[in-house]
Specification:
The complex is a heterodimer of chains A (about 1000) and B (about 90). With about 1000 residues, chain A is an alpha+beta fold. Chain A is built from 25 helices and 50 strands. Chain B is mainly β. Chain B has 1 helix and 6 strands. Chain B is globular and about 45 Å long. Classes of the chains: A alpha+beta (about 1000), B mainly beta (about 90).
Chain lengths: ~1000, ~90
């Protein structure tokens, strides 16, 4: 274990009494509670932490926050490790293990670094241009290229962590817990509003934790702790730390992820993260700002860092990011960092400032400390490779757009950059708000809002601390007021005017000192100034094109440090202003969000609801194999010991044809229809006429969409003068119910009809087969089952096995059949009663597969199986069910030219030589391989026990005119060809004699 | 996710609703008198404006009632909610 040689002895927000051991790239280190992985690595003097995306150049820690482009790590070991986490955000815990991403075999010796040597041959668009020829070879190149590019390794094992979701409403949501956000939350909370304050860090404070500023004679940290205590005392205020608001949607709907236990390594069995779904009346965005770097040659060496980050490592973490420093700046702000560096015992060689004559307060203070200020100078390059060894400084020419004079070398191992600040406008922009360009500070700031949202503090382009406090208070107070809360006697907010400071001078790019040296704009994606110049030259002048061509601004950091330079350089090349170039679109999520937290607890058996019938337990105990139909679990078949599927289905089919079979038909959609206009309603919904259906009789109906295509079918029964009972397909029940409600409420409100879904109120058991009546007669009371008294397609009420029942004489198998419906709670009792009496009849439970075989033998369509939304009643040969005497939904469409083409596909039967897969294509002229002219496809195919041969149903172009002809089913993938004869779709009992017994 | 003020249940999240597309498209009464093109216009063609659109919504996971909504398709702002059968008004645009 190495000593923390870069650690300061006192100060900072770390607990030196809590030592935490961790491993990075296989080596053991020690840090303190309060550290991030990045601060602990810096405290241990580790400078090289990763390799860049494309050129595999050595990289070091660059920032102290979520904008980090370099220090991406794979956290944890083995199959469940997590890729691409920013070391600057990973809180240290004892036993943490992490490794650099995108290097092989190690971060110190990376063979892909060869790319760096030939970087001049790898400009933007290189892969696009080079590996596109010949086209078919891309899949070969890709394997090799993918190995060299990319980041961490996606986890291979299931994520066993526990995640949760929570919904919350509030009056004021404050995003960001720095000085502005805290002030806003205090103001809104004092007014009595329900407030949620969120911050992504482990504790509130934001910039105050790192910049050492003071408030009202207190340290910023002390002020924060006092505010936190006050917020905690307010009953209606909730403070969430370690929580990132990542998505801002319509009507102030904000999604946030709370990292509940990641800072402890997410121990097994504990909640790892929680997804918050917030609906807020008002939102205050106090999301702070992100510092911009300066751009120059070889500006990516480990040891080059944002000035604010260096300051944060010293003040917040007590970690010295270097021992000999220089600063390269274009504004006053970074001078305060210089003072903090000196305070921490770091030797500051010089502050290099591109401005001609900086005179601000902080500048004077730096000069007073005897630090060299090189005004009107720039950094032209750096020395070193795996760590920074020095910089090259040059004077600027008079115009300030190039160099003058000789190179001067300065030795240093830390170079702090400050090119101004970009307000974090991501969420504001996601909310639909417009961005304005602030010329003076050279940054985009929130403009006109579209939702109930405001911005405060640095997020609003106000960077001075007093402005953050005043702006936050005002924003919080106003938000509370708009939500209906006001603090009585609150002191008027003090007007704030920003302190006088020399404006920054955005020098976006300078020419290279020597040719070919890379000036990185986007460190994460290795995009250079030359790449942007090339893209503009090649016509990718629109900012969205620039992004895609060069990849600038992509990846986990989304170009947070480099985007502004990319835009500005593009604007400069095109000779337009930055706002004219515009920004790329800010889309959610603001930060990467694990899939696990989005899934929450809806995984495994809870992924999707499961619907089970009253008899489900019996099916399970009896070894049924289940078929998923919509959300329903239906028995598919019931294999006996030693039986395969084919044998079981054959046995079940034979039972229905020769004896009697029992089917759990409870999943059928059932809709109760009441009202004086019910018959008229059915006339409009179904293709056939319902006016003359007698009470107690059933009728089959076909339902079309307005486009004329078959939508659903089923049997509807007239139970009383104004009372009908409709059945639908299992899968179509909800859709049909919604469809009918839609027409009733929106188009035909004059019809006096109401609909009730009763699918789950009835258990429906279907008896089918020549012995069905004999079996039922043993249990039925008060019903005459004789043919004369109870004909096919009619209904009777009675009692079965002592249970009140509604008995329908209907059939989907072509055999004598009864569907007995009882209250769902009696379903299992009835089932068991049937089985008890059924012993004498060898009553056989059958599943959906046997049912499908039996109905296919009869040529009965299964909607959604034989039809696919492009099939008309005429296509099915069902013109007999289409009334010509009334209007109904879809009728007009049937007369459209396309619906009366003679070459439409017709529903036909096939006698294939062998069983073929459903969906198989049918052709007239088979070839060895596609393309072939397809004339239709197989919709159903089974081995028919009844017929002793395979049968199929199919849609074939002009099929009804081709009875007896032979077509071919080429199964190219299986290497076989099957011939089939076109026949009637009714294979069995064409006269229907078996039904009317 | 939109927050939709159901006239019967109050404001609820969009996941509870289903959208029925453009509102005020009456089913032609004498459809036989229409050409195929006119019928197709009723069936398929919708205004799809950039701006205010009147559309039908159903509170499927609540009261199951249909109602009309005037919504700005750019800002997603919901400008007005009114019962089925009531004519369009209030908002501007297509």
């Amino acid at each position: 274990m190495k000593r923390q040689r870069q650690r300061l002895d006192t100060g900072a927000r770390i607990d030196r009494s809590q030592r935490l051991g961790f491993r990075f790239n296989g080596k053991s280190y020690e840090g303190f509670a309060g550290d991030t992985l990045a601060s602990a690595l810096l405290a241990n003097g580790v400078r090289l932490v990763g390799r860049s995306f494309k050129f595999h150049r050595p990289r070091g820690i660059y920032s102290a926050g979520m904008e980090e482009p370099n220090a991406l790590v794979q956290l944890g070991k083995g199959a469940a490790s997590e890729p691409n986490l920013r070391a600057t955000q990973v809180e240290l815990f004892d036993g943490l293990e992490a490794a650099s991403v995108n290097c092989w075999p190690s971060v110190k010796f990376d063979v892909w670094a060869l790319n760096d040597r030939v970087s001049s041959m790898l400009p933007a668009g290189f892969y696009y241009k080079t590996f596109m020829w010949p086209k078919s070879f891309w899949h070969r190149y890709e394997k090799v290229i993918r190995k060299g590019a990319g980041l961490g390794i996606a986890p291979q094992a299931p994520d066993h962590n526990i995640y949760d979701k929570r919904h919350q409403h509030c009056d004021v949501l404050v995003v960001g817990g720095g000085p502005a956000g805290i002030s806003a939350a205090l103001a809104a909370g004092r007014a009595g509003a329900r407030v949620i304050l969120v911050d992504e860090q482990a504790e509130l404070g934001g910039a105050l934790l790192g910049n050492g500023e003071r408030i009202e004679a207190r340290s910023g940290v002390d002020w924060t702790l006092g505010a936190r205590a006050e917020l905690d005392d307010m009953a209606e205020v909730r403070v969430l730390t370690r929580t990132t608001a990542f998505g801002y949607y319509d009507q102030n709907y904000v999604l946030m992820v709370e990292r509940v236990n990641d800072h402890l390594g997410a121990p097994a069995g504990t909640l790892r993260q929680r997804l918050w779904k917030i609906r807020a009346a008002q939102v205050v965005l106090a999301t702070g700002a992100i510092e911009r770097p300066m751009v120059f040659a070889n500006n990516d060496r480990p040891g080059v860092m944002l000035a604010g980050a260096a300051q944060t490592y010293i003040n917040r973490y007590g970690a010295k990011p270097g021992n000999r420093a220089a600063l390269y700046v274009n504004n006053d702000c970074a001078y305060r960092a210089a003072l903090d560096l000196v305070e921490a015992g770091i030797r500051v060689e010089a502050v290099i400032d591109v401005r001609a004559n900086p005179t601000g307060e902080a500048v004077a203070a730096v000069r007073e400390r005897g630090i060299d200020v090189l005004a009107h100078h720039a950094v032209g390059g750096t020395l070193g490779s795996k760590r920074l060894r020095g910089i090259e400084v040059l004077a600027l020419n008079d115009k300030g757009d190039g160099f003058a004079g000789d190179i001067r070398r300065l030795r240093c191992d830390l170079l702090c950059l400050s090119g101004g600040w970009n307000p974090t406008v991501h969420l504001f922009s996601q909310s639909g708000g417009k961005l304005d360009f602030d010329e003076k500070q050279a940054c985009f700031v929130p403009g006109e809002a579209r939702q109930a949202v405001s911005a405060a503090g640095a997020a609003n382009g106000v960077f001075a601390l007093q402005g953050c406090l005043a702006g936050g208070t005002a924003a919080g107070r106003e938000a509370a007021q708009k939500a209906g809360f006001e603090e009585p006697g609150a002191p008027a907010a003090l007007p704030f005017s920003p302190p006088e400071a020399d404006p920054l001078n955005p020098v976006w790019r300078l020419p290279p000192v020597s040719k070919g040296e890379m000036r990185f704009v986007d460190l994460h994606n290795d995009v250079t100034v030359s790449d942007i110049e090339l893209a503009a030259r090649e016509g990718y002048g629109a900012v969205e094109h620039l992004k895609r061509y060069t990849t600038t601004g992509m990846g986990p950091d989304q170009g947070r440090t480099g985007n502004m330079h990319a835009l500005a350089i593009l604007a400069d090349i095109k000779g337009v202003s930055i706002p004219e170039v515009g920004t790329t679109t800010f889309r959610p999520p603001y930060a990467p969000v694990p899939y696990g937290v989005m899934a929450g607890r809806d995984v495994g058996v809870l992924t999707d609801p499961v619907r089970m019938t009253a008899i489900h337990g019996w099916h399970e105990r009896s070894g049924a194999v289940f078929d998923d139909v919509g959300h329903w679990k239906r028995p598919w078949y019931y294999p006996r010991p030693g039986e395969n599927m084919a044998a079981a289905v054959r046995r079940e089919c034979v039972a229905a044809r020769d004896g009697v079979a029992l089917l759990d038909a409870s999943t059928l959609g059932k809709i109760d229809i009441h009202g004086p206009d019910a018959a008229e309603f059915l006339n409009r919904i179904y293709t056939n006429s319902w006016s003359k259906l007698a009470v107690g009789r059933c009728r089959y109906g076909l339902m079309l969409g307005e486009d004329g295509m078959v939508m659903d079918d089923g049997v509807t029964t007239r139970l009383g003068e104004t009372h009908y009972f409709m059945t639908t397909t299992t899968g179509g029940a909800a859709r049909v119910m919604a469809w009918m409600e839609d027409w009733l409420q929106c188009e035909w409100p004059d019809l006096k009809v109401f609909l009730t879904s009763v699918s789950e109120q009835w258990a429906t058991l279907s008896l089918s087969g020549p012995n069905a009546r004999r079996l039922l007669s043993e249990l039925a009371e008060g019903v005459d089952l004789s043919v004369q008294a109870f004909p096919h397609m009619s209904v009777r009420d009675g009692r079965v096995a002592g249970i009140d029942a509604r008995i329908f004489r209907v059939s989907f198998t072509g055999e004598l059949g009864y569907e007995v419906s009882v209250a769902t709670s009696y379903g299992l009792a009835l089932w068991q009663a049937f089985l008890r009496v059924g012993e004498n009849y060898d009553l056989t439970p059958i599943g959906t597969e046997a049912l499908h075989v039996l109905r296919a033998e009869k040529g009965y369509i299964a909607v959604g199986h034989d039809t696919d939304g492009t099939v008309t009643p005429g296509d099915l040969g069902m013109d007999w069910i289409v009334s010509t005497k009334k209007d109904f939904l879809g009728r007009r469409s049937l007369a459209r030219a396309d619906c009366v083409r003679p070459d439409r596909k017709h529903f036909v039967g096939l006698l294939p030589e062998a069983r073929v897969p459903e969906g198989a294509q049918i052709v007239d002229e088979p070839r060895r391989r596609p393309p072939m002219k397809m004339i239709g496809h197989v919709t159903s195919c089974y081995d028919s026990a009844t017929l002793g041969r395979p049968i199929a149903l199919a849609m074939v172009a002009g099929g009804r005119e081709r009875m007896g002809e032979t077509v071919t089913i080429p199964l190219t993938m299986e290497g076989r060809v099957v011939k089939a004869e076109i026949v009637s779709p009714v294979f069995y009992d064409a006269q229907g004699e078996r039904l009317n017994v | 996710m939109l927050q939709i003020p159901c006239p019967h249940c109050g404001p609820r999240d969009e996941v509870e609703f289903s959208c029925g597309g453009e509102a005020h498209i009456a089913r032609p009464k004498e459809s036989d008198a229409l050409s195929d093109a006119e019928w197709a216009d009723y069936l398929f063609m919708r205004a799809n404006p950039k701006g205010v659109l009147a559309e039908r919504w159903c509170h499927t996971l609540g009261c199951r009632r249909w109602f009309n909504v005037e919504r700005d398709t750019v800002s997603h702002e919901i400008l007005r909610v009114y019962p089925m059968g009531e004519p369009r008004g209030g908002g501007s645009g297509a």
